[in-house]
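Annex B. Sample input.
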Amino acid sequence: MATSAFGQARYPLVRPGVPLVFPRDHGAHPDFRTEWWYITGQVRDARGRAFGIQITFFRNRPGLQEESPSGFAPKQLLFAHAAIADPTHGKLRHDQRAARAGLGLAEVSPTTTAVHIDDWSLALEGERYRTRIAADTFTMELTFSATQPLVLQGDRGVSRKGPRPEQSSYYYSRPHLATTGTIAIDGKPASVQGVAWLDHEWSSEYLAPEAQGWDWVGLNFDDGGALMAFRIRLRDGGILWSGGSRRDPQGSVRVFAPHEVRFEPLRTWRSPRTGGVYPVAMRLRAGDASFDLDPLMDDQELDARPSVGTVYWEGAVRVRENGQPRGHGYLELTGYVRPLKL
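Annex B, continued. Sample output.
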């Protein structure tokens, strides 16, 4: 097996042609360096108030003390981010957790999606994901039910992130998750429903050393279609790689070549906290289609320096095509404060 060395560890590389197998590949892949389960969505309460939601669990194998028999050895590290975008509040409510795996306090399953850090959890039960997040100023108890088959991104689940083959990840998405449950802000609960998107991705080498960061979008269209697109930006302002896919309402999937995906900033927002300047409104060109992405609100910056060491903009967006509403999604912008390091 091809491997890549970082520090004391040797990590397996992503290999084209290796099929993903479910339900096993819903679970963790602890030999790989980095992995995440990432849910974004938009919901409404009974009064019609819109909220963006984001829940992400990360797993990292740091390659330290791997021969130690101690349960305290940091062989696997777990992190989690959760956020609510509420336009009436005007800025992102967010919280984060971090722990070494083990001792029952933080665990991740290798056989299915089942990860928790203290009282934060995400678990797959049949075709439904359930999450419980107990943050300092908000809670979320939500169920995400699959309504469509999953999408294998890239070449049958192998997604290139650069010109070298090792710059790849195993990657699948689950768009159009029917979302129900309760969110509570400052102790005031509200029943909500809406639509969400899940990504599960794992890799040992993801970003090239010359990369600054990435822009990513996952869109749920009102007609049942879905689109994922990304670009990886260079430190000199150029583009290293782009890609994505679009599934039509009938289920056919088109994979985009790098030259078919373009992100064009329409408007920027400067963070008053970090000074980062983010292109929060974008025009996305994917194949022969063009979509305008408008943020639910401008201030959706998440400062994750206490956990994974980075700052990024994680934003609920509305989607328009030729001026007409087409759906909703999430836009992620990384590397705008400093170069992103995984």
